Amino acid sequence: MAGSLWEWTFDGYSDYWYAGPGGTCRDCANVTPGPRSDRGGSFYESDAKSFRASYRGKDFPQNRAEWLGFRCARDP
């Protein structure tokens, strides 16, 4: 996942996301407004921990940056 930009996700951000049961988006169509998780690290980062797949950052959907993007995906 590490590469040229952080991957913005639809998952809502919480400091304690993994403390809850399952640690996944339970009702993704109705995620409350607020920051979203981003993953993957980017050329902009210099801290090695940000390149771990489990490391998350947060951004609001209206934020824009040259190091923040998204991945198109669909069900097979």
Based on the model shown, name its key terms.
four-stranded mixed sheet, 76 residues, mainly beta
Q: What's the total helix number? A: 0
- Tell me, what's the shape? globular
- Could you give a short account of the major beta sheet? 4 strands, mixed
Output mean pLDDT.
Answer: 74
Which structural class best describes the helix and strand composition? mainly beta
Strand order, main sheet: write it out: 3-2-1-4
> Number of DSSP strands?
4
Q: Whole-number radius of gyration?
A: 13 Å
> Separation of termini?
20 Å
The helical percent reads under 10%
Report the order of strands and helices. EEEE
Number of domains: 1
Strand percentage: 15-25%
Description of the structure:
By secondary structure, the chain is mainly beta. The protein has one domain. The chain has no helices and 4 strands. The protein is globular.
Mind sketching the topology for me?
Layout: E1 6-12, E2 36-39, E3 56-59, E4 68-69
Task: Quickly describe the structure.
The chain is mostly beta strands and 76 residues long. The protein contains no helices and four strands.
